[in-house]
Design goal:
This protein is an alpha+beta fold. 44% of the residues lie in helices and 17% in strands. Belongs to the ArsC family.
Length: 120
């Protein structure tokens, strides 16, 4: 059986990203952590999550970055919003986790169920 590894996109400030990292390490799953503050996601990587969940599911509407960007009042195109998310990881609902063909967003109960599926 192949070694299970997951890729976690997050930031050091993200409580959810730390929770995901802890979850997988406790289960001895290899973690490839991508700190979005150091290395932004590629458009292709982010698009994969958008295609599965939709833009709004990835957007952290409760976060400071969302309010600071004025997005609660602005009407922006999907392309423009995608670019803003690439430029500012604070707009993303973190963590974004990829394990094989499975993807998860955030750290809610639904995301944690997908994490458990990734572990097998």
């Amino acid at each position: 059986m192949a070694e299970v590894t997951v890729q976690i996109f997050g930031t050091k400030k993200s409580k959810g990203a730390r929770a995901a990292e802890r979850f997988f390490k406790e289960r001895r799953v290899g973690v490839h952590y991508v700190d979005l503050a150091q290395r932004p996601m590629s458009k292709g990587e982010l698009t994969r999550f958008v295609q599965k969940f939709g833009l709004n599911a990835l957007l952290d509407m409760e976060g400071k970055a969302y309010k600071d960007a004025g997005l609660e009042y602005l009407r922006v195109s999907d392309d423009s919003l995608l670019q803003k998310m690439l430029d500012d990881p604070g707009l993303l609902r973190l963590p974004l986790v990829r394990g094989g063909k499975r993807l998860a967003v955030g750290e809610d109960t639904q995301a944690k169920a997908v994490w458990a599926e990734m572990v097998g």
